[in-house]
Design brief:
- Helix 3 packs antiparallel against helix 4.
- This protein starts with a helix and ends in an 11-residue tail after the last helix.
- It is an all-alpha fold and 134 residues long.
- The chain folds into two domains: 81 residues, no CATH class; 32 residues.
- The longest helix has 26 residues.
Length: 134
């Protein structure tokens, strides 16, 4: 490939989420969880957490559909990832101490973020795919 073909293919790639949708969803998630801690300082049951998470998922998906203008597949992946993380966090807090569960969740999110970063580097052609023969 030539340099002009590489730059053309990189410029054709668009992000899957708009910056506005990303920041609105992030702000809603943070404010929702802080609000849950303010309303229930001694802890809460599973029902308020499920209601809050469902509402936050609806806000995040709605902001992506309204401001992102992307297809419904992106929102489906967002919902699936949200359910996996929330379900894993709820299950982890039922099995382990909340501090250990929080640490485990942070580790899982960090590993998934790094994996996504590596996939993006390969997709953009910034690194070469490793050959197993080397």
């Amino acid at each position: 490939m030539t340099a002009s073909a590489d730059s053309a293919s990189v410029s054709d790639i668009s992000p899957s989420a708009s910056p506005t949708a990303t920041w609105l969803a992030l702000a809603a998630v943070v404010l929702g969880h802080v609000g849950l801690l303010v309303v229930f300082p001694d802890g809460t049951g599973l029902v308020p957490v499920v209601v809050l998470e469902g509402g936050l998922l609806a806000i995040a998906a709605g902001s992506e559909l309204l401001f992102g203008g992307r297809d419904r597949g992106t929102v489906g992946v967002l919902g699936f990832a949200w359910l996996l993380l929330v379900g894993g966090a709820v299950l982890a807090t039922r099995v382990w101490d909340p501090l250990i569960a929080a640490f485990a969740l942070v580790c899982v999110v960090a590993l998934l973020s790094y994996a996504l970063h590596r996939v993006e580097l390969v997709a953009l052609g910034l690194v070469e795919v490793a050959d197993e023969r080397e």
